[in-house]
Amino acid sequence: MRLKPPSGFRDFEPRDMILRKRVISTLENIFLRYGFDPIETPVIEHWEVFEGKYGEEAETKLMYRFKDPWSDKWFALRFDLTVPMARFFSLKRPSLPFKRYHIGRVWRHERPQKGRYREFWQADVDTVGSPYPEADAELLDLSINAMLKLGFRNFVIKLNDRRVLKGIFEEELALSNVIEVYRAIDKLDKIGYEGVKTELRKIGLNEETVNKLLEIISKEYDVEKNIIDLVDQFPKNKNVRDGINHLSSIIEYLGSNKKYVTFSLNLVRGLDYYTGPVWEIILKDIQIGSVAGGGRYDNLIEKYAGASYPATGISFGVERLIDAGKQLGLFKTEKSTFTEIYIISMTPKAYKMAWSIARELRDNGFFVQIDLMRRSERKQREYASKKGIPLTIIIGEKELSTNEITIYLRETGERITAKRKELINVLKARIKK
Amino acid sequence: MRLKPPSGFRDFEPRDMILRKRVISTLENIFLRYGFDPIETPVIEHWEVFEGKYGEEAETKLMYRFKDPWSDKWFALRFDLTVPMARFFSLKRPSLPFKRYHIGRVWRHERPQKGRYREFWQADVDTVGSPYPEADAELLDLSINAMLKLGFRNFVIKLNDRRVLKGIFEEELALSNVIEVYRAIDKLDKIGYEGVKTELRKIGLNEETVNKLLEIISKEYDVEKNIIDLVDQFPKNKNVRDGINHLSSIIEYLGSNKKYVTFSLNLVRGLDYYTGPVWEIILKDIQIGSVAGGGRYDNLIEKYAGASYPATGISFGVERLIDAGKQLGLFKTEKSTFTEIYIISMTPKAYKMAWSIARELRDNGFFVQIDLMRRSERKQREYASKKGIPLTIIIGEKELSTNEITIYLRETGERITAKRKELINVLKARIKK
């Protein structure tokens, strides 16, 4: 019997879960501060919901698609949380702006490797209804605060606008269909500049165009000065102007937080549906790819709703953040239990008292374990110690006769005694909830 | 384009999610009080993990099974959380007792109807390693406290032990294979006594046996007196004795909580893997089926681990609890947002101040929305009111010049003024976090 999960799928032990829950609830709290509310959608959608939304590679190679054995209809596991949100929005038509967050799993049939899984968690925030830079700026501000709250310091948000690229490519290089060019540039991190050149040649660009294009995207730009220069360079190009104006407004709203943002013409994002600003959060100290990414997609919802709704969003990669935080020493997986108190029964007679103390502690909100296996004092002690449970309460003959309880504090090695009726107060002073 | 999720699958709006999150976190807090820790497993498992565990109907008709298009292997969506836990335990071999909780979705291809979905949430707690009634009693004690904490009062835990039934059936009715008989009895709630009779005839029992069997299971038993009588009735039957002794111990541990328990010979549970005590929680005031159920399964883990590990658990049906709580008026879905404060910008000039106040409030932990759509004061007010956001802060020319902020309290209609620098303290007094 194969006991391991399918390749690319994972089990999480309590030690992993304790960290995951902390990271996820930190993100969630930040999302709530910015006025986003939770929704949930099924893990399965009708195939047609996904069809034509992500590009060919995703649809033919990466999606978990299967035929429902009963209805003979095609279903697929969700590939991201953005498309299900677009469907949800179109069905429910909530009042605008619709600001939702959604934290959940998605599935992609990638080659499993370090930091890349087939089942992984995304934490998404999206705003539907506003075409204005305020909505984008709010998401970037939220992202910066989320990163800081998680403990990251040395990160940068790479920012671009697809209209700027499109404008330059059209005017300078006379390119009409830029989606394929975006896909080639999106691989830059993985395949480098030479790799991107090869890809561009493959889609039919001549050598001169390839070189010019590479020159444009490889330049460093200052977030405030250079992006204005670009408008001067292409004074009559509406796309460049619209893109740059939008980015400038975003940066103005960010105030002092703009120090986390750089302008990068080589950032395009892989998915087809983006229409304006796009961004990614990169950690400077380690090579782990982006930990979050997003952008504006003003035309996606129309495919479901029939009418056009501007929308913008960002998706945090939960495992990327966790893996990065561990690597940087910010997150530790030391705790393997939430249990705060273990009650040792030294004799079978003590068990009744242990049960009654456990009940009282639990009623007071403490996380408590008692012996369920009729083990010796030593075995119980070993278990509590191995699990790293911070407090141990010992109940034996002496405790039964004197009604005084002995408490052992693992971290300091301290032993204290408490009268039975004062126990709760003594523990409340030691365990802050 | 079909915008609705597949049949039996559901979307959850913020208003649903706010209630769901409350119910789930209440359960989770109770699980932690009893020393259970969280784990997570993939939604997909190799088919062989499930094969032969749930009985024929489940495997042939109810499970979402599909062939992985890449590996040509058979996979299935998980049908419950118990079997994945057994696999997880056998792979990881954590120290004993292994006490885990797991709250997540499972999939069953049932006929969708009121209160019955194809994708639904279970909240499971299980203890591996203890064959003793302490472990079962702890789960029942936990269940009673969970129900009370959720607000339910008029409920009963139906308790039985499969060994008691097996002993009686063997001695009185000379039945050897009782699994089919259990399945027939399990349908009692759905098909009634006459229906069960028909099922029993179908599997070959003669009329006399059918009648005797029905007489046995339809009797009312008192949780303390009658179960002891049963031992006197079958003095030499080891199964009856073992079962009754185990149940008696459970009831003794429960102390005053035993008032929530009844002894029911007609409770068997549908799944094949139970070996000892079984239980279900029933609400007395409404017809909704059981809201939780579980029991002891001492032989399941052996199928994965090779060695035998006693185990016992309970599974709460999250949607059943929510549907029941709504029907009984315990749960309300009035709130459609977590947002606490909406900041209205009366003029475009006020927006900058709104943004800076929003930042300060968010840094102080408040959940805040500001205008992202450049709407009129009236439209902003309508939005805040429709969402039911409790506090509105208004910023206009007056506020800009005097640095005094107006706060409007939706519930009481009150209007208060606060100096800019005292705003946080004024709000902290109004919004308890």
What does this structure look like?
The structure is a homodimer of 433-residue chains. Chain A is α+β, with helices and mostly antiparallel strands. Chain A folds into 3 domains: 1-154 and 285-335, Bira Bifunctional Protein, Domain 2 (BirA Bifunctional Protein, domain 2, 2-Layer Sandwich); 162-257, no CATH class; 341-430, Rossmann fold. In chain A, 43% of the residues lie in helices and 20% in strands. Chain A has 17 helices and 16 strands. In chain A, strand 9 (277-283) and strand 10 (290-296) form a beta hairpin. The two termini of chain A are 43 Å apart. Chains A and B meet through helix 1, strand 1, strand 2, strand 3 and helix 4 of A and helix 1, strand 1, strand 2, strand 3 and helix 4 of B.
The helix count of chain A comes to: 17
The CATH architecture name of the largest domain in chain A reads 2-Layer Sandwich
CATH homologous superfamily classification of the largest domain in chain A = Bira Bifunctional Protein, Domain 2
Widest sheet, order of strands of chain A: 1-5-6-11-10-9-7-8
Number of domains of chain A: 3
Terminal Cα span of chain A: 43 Å
What fraction strand of chain A?
A: 15-25%
Give the overall average pLDDT of chain A: 92
Helix content of chain A: 40-55%
What is the CATH domain class of the largest domain in chain A?
A: Alpha Beta
Q: Evaluate the radius of gyration of chain A.
A: 28 Å
What is the largest interface, and how many residues per chain?
Answer: A-B, 92 and 91 residues
- Enter the CATH topology name of the largest domain in chain A: BirA Bifunctional Protein, domain 2
* Form type of chain A: elongated
Tell me how many strands of chain A there are.
Answer: 16
Q: Please describe the biggest sheet of chain A, giving its number of strands, its sense, and whether it closes into a barrel.
A: 8 strands, mixed
